[in-house]
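PROTEIN FOLDING TASK:
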Amino acid sequence: MNKNVIRIILDVVMVSLLVLMYEKYAISISFHELGGLAAVGLFVIHNGLNRTWITGITKRMFRRPLPARVRLGYALAVMLLITMTFIAVSGIMISKTIFTNVYGDYAFWRPAHYFASAVALVLVGIHIGLHWSFIRTMFARIFKVPRVIARPLVATFLIAAVAFGAYSMVTSEFTGWLTHPFTTEDGLGIGGGQGKQNRGAGGGSDSADAGAAEVIATYGSIAVAIAAATALTERGLKKVGKRKRAPQLAALPA
């Protein structure tokens, strides 16, 4: 099987599993803890498959100039590695079923776990957005749907996903997890289940109020919305760069 196809399959499974972790009772608390560790493991494998690029950029980072997009991608990979590691560690510290003999300051680790989880979703969204062209090309090769059919289907899906993602940002605990470390407000669903939808990554809810499909749709759409914003921003910056270079190229002698 083509290596790029393996990467796409791995990434789809990894992202699906990751977003499913944003409600600990979507399936069960045991699945949440095991699935979280599995998602981190898949992320490690993902980086292993891209080790040639990572190693090459690391060696070149301080030796020669690199395009801003490459530096951004590298910084994003490092931040994701740090964030995923912190999610794993904080998850172990607040474990209820697997690492029951590990103890930590619950008042610190629990909200920190939520914050890191929210940051990870943002970083994953940006990562998808930066690789949108590659993802689109690979899916076109895998499914081989005629362009006249694929384009309206993809456009419809993206519009629906982005709209639902924007709605989910407002109605879920996502924004509360991101802002909680910088506010003095309580009752954001972090640790107490008092949020807007009473759900949370690793513990915002104490009842199975959201099924697996709903959780994936809610937090997956947030990642898609962030990815779309990233892809559109990059596309706009490229157009601005082309317009700036056009007069310079026109001034060159024929």
In short: The chain has a mean pLDDT of 80. The two ends are 48 Å apart (CA to CA).
